[in-house]
Amino acid sequence: MMSNDLYRISSPLIPDLQWKPDRIFLNKSPRLWVNVLPKDPISARKSLYRMACYFRREFGYDFVQYDINEDDNGNHAAFVLTAANYISKDSVIGGMCFRKREKCEILKDHWGLQWVWIHPFSRNKGYLSRVWNQLNKTFPDFLVESPLSNAMKGFLKYKKCYDQHTDYRRLHK
């Protein structure tokens, strides 16, 4: 990777994918959070992978927390944030991934919000806030997995749910 590529962020397009209403997590025009499934076209999975790569790069993690070839075993739920409506083919400007955590010796089965990444120009616009209640309904008792960025800590405190989503002790068996 050339040094100037380190600072490049491009928003991929997802061509030829019809967003069906049952796949749209929340429609807050002009932005959509759309569920990306393992059977989706490679363009959708690559777009989500790119968001995971940006997350890894920004926070200096060792590995990318999403794989284009994820198994369809029901143990993850991944979403892209698009600037699309039902008809247009528009750019992906963010992503997030939940993982089901089970068979742990000390914790009850639960969902973990593994990562969220939104393009810097699209941050602080309420895109995560608008889906927060729906996330809590869809993934009850989910934990936001650490380490947390300062932005995520601030977000959770703003939503008055920092302890609820970060305290692993509440899930002890």
Describe this structure in words.
- This protein has 173 residues and is α+β, with helices and mostly antiparallel strands.
- It contains four helices and six strands, in the order ββαβββαβαα.
- The chain has helices spanning 42-59, 129-138, 150-158, 162-166; strands spanning 24-28, 31-36, 76-82, 92-101, 110-118, 143-144.
- Strands 1-2-3-4-5-6 form a six-stranded mixed sheet, with helices on both faces.
- The longest helix is centred in the N-terminal third of the chain and has 18 residues, at 42-59.
- The model has no long low-confidence stretch (mean pLDDT 81).
Features:
173 residues, alpha+beta, six-stranded mixed β-sheet, 4 helices, 6 strands, globular
Element string (H = helix, E = strand)? EEHEEEHEHH
Distance between the termini: 46 Å
- Mean pLDDT metric: 81
Q: What is the number of strand segments?
A: 6
Report the structural category.
alpha+beta
Number of helices: 4
Unreliable spans:
none
Largest sheet: 6 strands, mixed
Share in β-strands: 15-25%
Work out the helicity level. 10-25%
Side by side, the strands of the main sheet go 1-2-3-4-5-6
Shape: globular
Any idea what the radius of gyration is? Answer: 16 Å
Provide a compact summary of the structure.
The protein is of the alpha+beta class. Helix content is about 25%, strand content about 25%.
List the helices and strands and how they pair.
Layout: E1 24-28, E2 31-36, H1 42-59, E3 76-82, E4 92-101, E5 110-118, H2 129-138, E6 143-144, H3 150-158, H4 162-166
Parallel strand pairs: 5-6
Antiparallel strand pairs: 1-2, 2-3, 3-4, 4-5
